[in-house]
What does this fold into?
Amino acid sequence: MVDHDPAVRHGGDLAAAVARYGTGPEGWLDLSTGINPHPYPMPELPAEVWTRLPQADAEAALLEAAAGYYGVDGAAHIVAAPGTQALIQWLARLQHRADVAVVGPTYGEHAAQWRLAGHRVSEISDPEEGADAAVLIIVNPNNPDGRIIPRDAMLDLADRRAARGGLLIVDEAFADVAPEASISDAAGRPGLIILRSFGKFFGLPGLRLGFALAPLPFARRIRIALGAWAVSGPALEVGAQAMADIGWIEGMRVRLAEEAAQFDEMLAAADLSIAGGTHLFRLVATEHASELFAHLARRHVLTRPFDYCPNWLRLGLPKGGRHLGRLAEALSG
It folds into this structure.
């Protein structure tokens, strides 16, 4: 049984695509998510991480690695969770009912989960429109259009809200590929909570790992709400190693930037207008988005349409030249 709001559509539902369009000899090329197609290489894991409960020292090592990676002054400001989706749901339930403004269009679970928790939610297009809301939520870089609010502007916005006693939640799920826009190093400021995803940049969403960066009182409340052993032993181990692997991180950022540029050239050659994106995905705008989605699906290429904007189609970054070539062939066929 699916417990999340069925009104919120997500990418990655390959089973539904197979049920509708079948499977060809090459299988499916799934470009419906914004996940790194070059995952972090899974290390050899000691048998104990599978056979013992997650250990406190392993969690401490993960939080120290996360503090170093995100530039946070003190691991006590970081809470590890089984994915940022769990944090989105818990934050909505830990706050007293209030007026909440979500800058959008954006990741639909933010508005959906705060509504489910009984809050009064408005979806706005500019942060200044939410000046009177007790809680303001911004995804930066934004999903699906990649809009970025510059770092200085975001910090100013955080300080002004804190002065009013408000709460700013910044979802930086895609900030790994735009570190210059991140305000994660400001974690601990009053009234500021930052969400970070592990799975997208490191290409391991099935590991289910995410982080909340928050002032100590908020961090404690979130930690208590999540309860004991919130993160699995394997996730603790892999996360700690990956976030300390600076060589892989820096090399991957360069690789993704280069491949995104090649992706742009291919989309332009197909006469598709790029409306935005990050180095992990591109958003294209076309009056024929629904037809293009179906055209690609019949060729077993899955993309991400949007009910609220039928002229948009999001395509994840293909994995290298072979997959890029397959997409180009599907677009021209």
Q: What stands out?
A: The chain has twelve helices and 13 strands. The longest strand covers residues 192-197. Residues 1-6 have pLDDT under 50 and may be disordered.
